[in-house]
Amino acid sequence: MSxxxxxVQLNNRIVDIAIDKNRISRIAPxxxxxxxxxxxxxxxLALPPFYNTHGHxxxxxxxxxxDNLELFDWLFNHIWxxxxxxxxESVYWGSKLAILEMIKTGTVFFNDMYFYPQATIRAAxxxxxxxxxGMISADRVSPEKQKVYHEHNQMIWDMKKDFSxxxxxxxxxxxxxxxxEDTLLAQAERSAAERIPIHIHLAETRxxxxxxxxxxxxxxPVQYLDKLGVLTDQTLCAHSIHLSDEDxxxxxxxxxxxxxxxxxxxxxSSGRFRFxxxxxxxxRVTFGTDGCASNDSLSMFDEMKFGAFAARNEQxxxxxxxxxxxxxxxxxxxxxxxxxxxxxxxxxxxADIMLIDLDNTMMVADHDYISNIVYSADSSCVDTVIxxxxxxxxxxxVPGEKEIVRKARETAKTLVNR
Length: 418
Ligand SMILES: [Zn+2]
Hints:
The protein is of the alpha/beta class. The protein has helices at 71-83, 88-104, 117-127, 143-159, 181-194, 206-215, 221-228, 245-253, 262-267, 275-280, 300-315, 323-330, 332-337, 369-375, 401-415, and strands at 2-10, 13-20, 23-28, 37-40, 44-47, 50-55, 107-112, 130-137, 167-173, 198-202, 235-239, 257-260, 284-287, 353-357, 382-387, 390-393.
């Protein structure tokens, strides 16, 4: 498959972008040749799309339940009971709905932690999006349920060789308060030996920090995980809100990846991520949406704007973050975190591209496109999304979207009694 995007705006010039198979083969003022598909890029801006580094895709099915609660009440008393009703089929349709929404909002990768990961992988493969899918552990909560998770984890591990290059697997210990220490130790060992990413919720609430200190001789969650050898350059820590200066230094030194989830952090009243301090300390900061029951959308536009404003509110200085920094965290940093050779539009890079409609009112005036993208634009500005050399959406149409919406709506009704 070859694609030519004609006459598109890229970094303040008009160019043609050629894609051969799944890589950007040429960027030049004019590219000749024969292509399977030619896209008219006039009036469009080419940008790297978004890489969503923390979420629970199928939680789209729980969007709108249990508002107005803090994390532990929300999780233990509302979300976990509703999740008892999940099946492989419902996770499949919830994941399809999530992926549809991600594509429509310019996202080409998501890092997922949820039940029935085989269903999420099936949905991601069908819709040709990139994903890191978690092998979940929560063995401090229920050893019986962990047996089922283990079966599913083993199943996807055994199927690994059949997945496309767009799918990778990660260990997903839910959090330190839900996963046993020997499990964390074993995963840290295997992660180091086999280069498997680890994806964990970390320091999301003050209670998590206090409980950890009480249980582990005064160690913070970061210090505790560091002691176990869990924190490396392939460990992604979601939320990472309640961090001391020392915690931030450890995370920077270990080159661990932080996923900033501003909408979820504020909806669950969990607290503020220390954006400026983390960036200035050399931490690898990315953006994630978290699941739809605590956000409630999967739009990275919302995360960028909200995240920038939250950083300003925290810092109360004139320059706590720039639009360019925020955009880099949501794109390039997210791709790099998962070893995806994309996140910038250059010859030789993987062909992940979104085309933004420059005639959308939110993109006018034309003084600073990145500022417009971070502070003004929403998903209606995204016209076309290309992932791994495949066109996932063109002129805002994703193939099969009506059926996905219908099936997801039906499925959600079977899960929640209202
Ligand atoms: Zn989460």
